[in-house]
Amino acid sequence: MSVLVLAEIDNGALSPATARIVAAASRLGPVDLLVPGPQAAGAEAARIAGVAKVFTSAVEMRAESLAMLLSTLTMRYRYIVAGASSLGKDVMPRLAAMLDIQPVTDIVAIESPTRFVRPVYAGNALETVSDPQDRHVLTIRAAAFRPAAGDNDAPVEVLDAPAVSAAKLIATHRNESDIPDLPTARIVVAGGVSVGSREGFALVEKLASVLGAAIGATRAAVDAGYAPNDWQVGQTGKIIAPELYIAVGISGALQHLAGIQGARKIIAINKDAEAPLVRIADLALIGDLFEIVPQLIAELEKA
Ligand code: FAD
């Protein structure tokens, strides 16, 4: 019942999401990890608890090359698993087609070796899928699982990279920032359109900075130009699962809630005590955000 996991690589380094995917996949059997990146990332991956063996390869980070490399390894494994990330969504359907396996995607819970839970209808319902195939191609929502510990020392084997296809990766563009990564952050502070302006959103950013938190936004705030697109949380934005989610002036539309279901504790700051997000919050501060947030920042700065 062995499992092969494709590690998440972020800008050449091992992403913290990998330890979460390994923790989930360990429920299916002993895990081997394929790290498509530098050997330093492989060495870091070898420390993740539950990993029996690490393969590294200087393979090109493109779906065609990764699917080809995975397909050369898969005969040894009953499960081939990746994150439900842009990488996993690119590689795994291709691999599944090559292997003639129906993939099960976006898994948030593993009930048994052949029963998986996944959200449908933008997270408004959860469906349990029974997968009777002999071998399984799965993608996992990393944010739904706690990370595996980092006290391991698994052996590392270097694999040859497969011959590259005609297509070539020219460049990857990313925004450089010290702000924690939204999908894996411990604390997220997000703002809604009610902040009223780009300057108003700076209040949300200040609160996040004091807490060392990642910054999120609603689609309405993004559409209004108060926050960049890659801060959007929700059905058409990022899926997050922080220990603490602080929602500043956010109503809690269904499409927003679809992205925060994994949050463990929620604090809502809103002047409407009946707002949907206030109703599901563990703690609500009812009042004007322009009064509450500066007071919060001042108290936190004293601490
Ligand atoms: P509003 O709903 O307008 O809420 C503003 C809130 O601020 C209210 O609760 C109000 O009481 C409070 N408020 C106002 N002034 C103050 C103040 N001074 N102090 C304190 N509180 C105050 N949205 C997402 O967020 N993410 C998505 O991924 C997403 N995907 C979508 C996909 C589709 C196909 C569609 C149709 C919509 C999607 N939306 C998404 C939009 C979503 O439906 C909502 O419109 C949006 O989430 C609302 O954002 P908001 O909470 O900032 O604004």
Automatic annotation (TrEMBL):
Pfam families: ETF (PF01012), ETF_alpha (PF00766). CDD domains: ETF_alpha (cd01715). It comes from the Bacteria. The keyword Ribosomal protein does not apply. SMART domains: ETF. Residues 3-173 form the Electron transfer flavoprotein alpha/beta-subunit N-terminal domain. Keywords: Electron transport, Transport. Belongs to the ETF alpha-subunit/FixB family. This is Electron transfer flavoprotein subunit alpha/FixB family protein. The lineage of its organism: Bacteria, Pseudomonadati, Pseudomonadota, Alphaproteobacteria, Hyphomicrobiales.
